Amino acid sequence: MEKEKQLLIKCRLLIEQLLNWGDSSIWTNDDFEQLSEKIFEKTKVQLSVSTLKRIWGKVRYENFPTHGTLNALSGFLGYESWRDFRQKNEDPGPVVKLNSDTISESILPAEETNPSAWKISLPVVLIIAVVVISGAIFVSSKKNPGPVDLSSVKFEAVEVTDTLPNSVVFNYDASVFKSDSVFIQQSWDPRRREKVAGNGKQYTSIYYNPGYFMAKLIVDNKIKKECVVSIKTNGWKGIIERNPIPIYLSPKEIKGKGFMGISDSLFRVKIGVPVFNDTWVKFANVKEYEGIDAGNFELETTFRNTSAVEASVCRSTYVLLLGQGSAISIPFADKGCISGLNLLAGYTFISGKDHDMSAFGCDFSKFQNLKCTVANGELKIYLNDKLIITVPQKKTLGKIEGIRFEFEGSGQVKNVKLSSPGAGVYDEKF
Q1: Helix 2-19 and helix 67-76: axis angle, to 10°?
Q2: Per-residue confidence at 261, pLDDT binned at 50, 70, 90?
Q3: 79 vs 138, which has greater pLDDT?
Q4: Calpha distance 147→270 (Å, rounded)
Q5: Is the full-model pTM beyond 0.85?
Q6: Within a 13 Å sphere around the CA of 26, how many CA atoms are in the beta-carbon half?
Q7: Rounded to an integer, what distance in angstroms lies between the CA atom of residue 34 and that of residue 31?
Q8: C-alpha–C-alpha distance, residues 282 and 320, integer Å
Q9: Quick one: which of 174, 157, 169 has its CA closest to 222?
Q10: Quick one: pLDDT at residue 325?
Q11: Neighbours of 36 (CB within 10 A)
Q12: Nearest to residue 165, comparing CAs of 234, 262, 78, 253?
């Protein structure tokens, strides 16, 4: 059980590093609510605030977390299960602590066990003990050289091109830490964390999907520096999700008569099967939308999921605005599938498991008209000219970096307009 407790502490620390919210000792109830939402978004498992507070020691509770809770925590970190987390984070072995008992036992000859022999050798023992302890302190000081001026630590990303796929060259210098535990994590996803040489200078990675990412330089399991990786699309790009490498669609393949999209027939050819459940196509335009105020804007678009219900049961659809700090992800589906919808409203997560999302249910035999506005600290979403939800906005997206449509199966988009009052306007009809 002690080993399990140590693993739980490590799991907790990794989550704290992933979130980068600062010292967990000062986390508030709102922070644990946000963590609960993020875990649900990633794993579809709802951990209560009280459960998370017990795990972080905010509430006294003697019992060890359930297996389901442990699976959810490790799943949030990108592991398949708690067993997978345990296997990949095995304790390297017991730590040997230097104390007077171990010193005396290690330096006394085996035959010198009588009191007189001990008295004779005591000065020698003390001298050797001082030498050993001094050596240990010296080694420790070399391994932990003290506070490092992070401004002197180099970590930057250089995108090779402005198209997809895109290789990124990370220039880094972590030699000042004198550590062999140096990692570069390419995005928020801990599964994209790669070990690099502690005295190395460069590391390269391929990004197949567009987006705005915050890469991290991690030394001894602590985030030391971050840098932005912006993978742009150079116009609208159609992508069918596949792991590890997606399927790209040509401009000709996504250009329809008065719409951007993909047909059922082309989708079947591309993926090789006639059923599209949990198979997604994305249309993304990632770029800098200059003149758009993230705290005061309006998005208007017309879209529909064109899959037959026999091909995609729920015909789930998402419209996303990508920001520097977070995103707005607006979900839609057939009316019978609204329980599975999740709305990300900047920094607020709303789950269809404990909220009525009926207003987001659609009749996809017709095009749907969506309007999304952010003004005066409120996000408002309108569907077919009807206000369906209002969500307070504590913070803005930082800066809008992209627009994306996601369809479970085939879909079409007629137009996109993004504007700020008295400022920039992005308006495109397909």
Answers
A1: 40
A2: very high
A3: 79
A4: 54
A5: no
A6: 4
A7: 5
A8: 10
A9: 174
A10: 79
A11: 20
A12: 234
